[in-house]
Amino acid sequence: MVSLASLLAFSSSVLASHYPLTLTDADGQQVTLKQEPKRLVVQDGRDILSLALLDRANPFQRVVAWNNLLKKSDGVTWALMDKKWPQAKQIIDMGFSDKGEVNLESVIAERPDLMVAQLRSKPSLTQTGVLDKLKQLGIPVLFIDTFQKPVEDAPKSITLLGKALNRENEAQQYTDYYQQHFQLILDRVRDVQPKPRVFFEAKAGLGGLESCCFTHAHVGWGALVEAVGATNLGSQLLPGATGDVSLEKVIAMKPDAYIVSGSQWASKDNAAVPFGYGVTQQQVDSAFNKMKQRPGFAQLQPVKQGRFYGLYHNFYNHPYNIVGLEYLAKFIYPQQFSDLNPANTWHQILTRFTTLPEGTGILASQAPQQ
Fold first, then answer.
1. Do residues 314 and 308 lie in contact, with contact meaning Cβ atoms separated by under 8 Å?
2. How far apart are the C-alpha atoms of 196 and 194, rounded to whole Å?
3. Phi-psi bin for 263: left (phi > 0), alpha (psi -120 to 50), beta?
4. Interval 32-44: pLDDT, tens
5. Cα dihedral: 40, 43, 47, 50 (round 10)
6. 15 touches 165 (CB < 8 A)
7. Cβ–Cβ under 8 Å, residues 286 and 278
8. Contact criterion met (CB below 8 Å) for 255 and 302
């Protein structure tokens, strides 16, 4: 008779990584790792949240250099992480841009054995010669993606990192959870006709309330809107992946729902809805009401009809974007998803699959109706 302990041992050994290991990354390139990586460079610091699903006790344990984008885009979350893992402050913050520029000397000085980079940074990493230099030094680069194809590639990227870091069991636990929650959305929206028409204004108010309206086409938020079965108007209005659309054009397109993303950016002009930890509903409502005062904004059908919503910006490029997908589903299809609780999904992810500290605040909201 086979004991439970031996079964568990067998199952974990099946999912153990063996080195040298060759993987195919999000760029379709084969990457060979000679041994389990212990010294990581993280090109986009938000990917510390991916590592939190894998190195659960301490997502910083392998990181020797990173670009701390969390400090700029969500200082409250960074403060919570810094308090729990104070040694993270000692990790070199490269300050390289999220587009890929790298202070290469500083990186090399940390003797990394792997760089983890977002696929969208590849053009910059190529043009600046970073990829060639790292190749010469024998430092592999593993591209992951949570932006270009967020729903397809976010779970794939967790699986890829799980294999690379010998954390396949942890990766599979999360990706199974992700797919179960996404399938529930697909099952409920499959037969909805006509498809709701959605305009998504990303980073609304970041540069002040005068500018409007930055949006995504088939990437980022646009891809997430399309993933829940809706028509993303940005995909029809933009010639490229991202860009600005005039408010007049948006009004003429007659969206069924208007959704903005916001965060607590460290910018003096920031008038975005301040989603995240440490904010109150009153602060969120106040920011929404100011946004409604933008010239011409009151002419939007969804604003008139109470179909104006907002949510936490970083979900667009986030390994936990299933929470963003659930909020989108709830906003776009209020009848089909009245029972859905995305805040509980967020709580479950943090408590079941990570040891990240959980703050209190607001991740999403409907704008107050006058």
1. no
2. 6
3. beta
4. 999 999 999 999 9
5. -40
6. no
7. no
8. yes
| Closest C-alpha to 350, from 49, 96, 146 | 49
Least Cα distance to 45 among 169, 146, 165, 162 occurs for 146
Tell me the two tokens of residue 142.
């593993």
- The C-alpha atoms of residue 186 and residue 94 are separated, in whole angstroms, by 40
- The helix or strand, by DSSP H or E, that contains position 152, with its residue range, turns out to be helix 150-164
Residue of 52, 54, 61 lying closest to 70 (CA atoms) = 52
365 strand-pairing partners: 310
Reported as half-sphere exposure (CB side, CA atoms, 13 A), residue 255 has a value of: 33
For residue 298 the two structure tokens come to: 């009151």
DSSP annotation of 205: T
Q: Which residues pair with 66 in a beta bridge?
A: 42, 93
What is the residue-wise DSSP string for 105-150? HHHHHT--SEEEEEGGGHHHHHHTTHHHHHHHTT--EEEE-SSSSH
pLDDT in tens, 196-239: 999 999 999 998 998 899 999 999 999 999 999 999 999 999 99
**Beta bridge pairs of residue 32:** 22
End-to-end CA distance of the chain: give it in Å, rounded. Answer: 68
Which pair of structure tokens corresponds to residue 125?
A: 């990493």
Q: Evaluate if residue 15 carries a pLDDT over 80.
A: no
Q: For 219, what's the count of Cα atoms within 13 Å in the CB-facing half-sphere?
A: 13
Q: In 3-state terms, what secondary structure has residue 4?
A: helix
Structure tokens at 133: 């230099």
Q: Is 231 within 8 Å of 198 (Cβ atoms)?
A: yes
CA distance 109 to 107: 5
Handedness of CA 105, 107, 110, 115 (dihedral sign): negative
Residue of 198, 291, 311, 295 whose CA lies nearest to 246: 295
Burial classification of residue 253, based on how many CB atoms lie within 10 Å of its CB (0-12 exposed, 13-18 middle, 19 or more buried):
middle
Distance CA 307, CA 368 (A): 10
* Inter-residue contact 110 to 39 (CB < 8 Å): yes
Whole-prediction pTM: 0.92
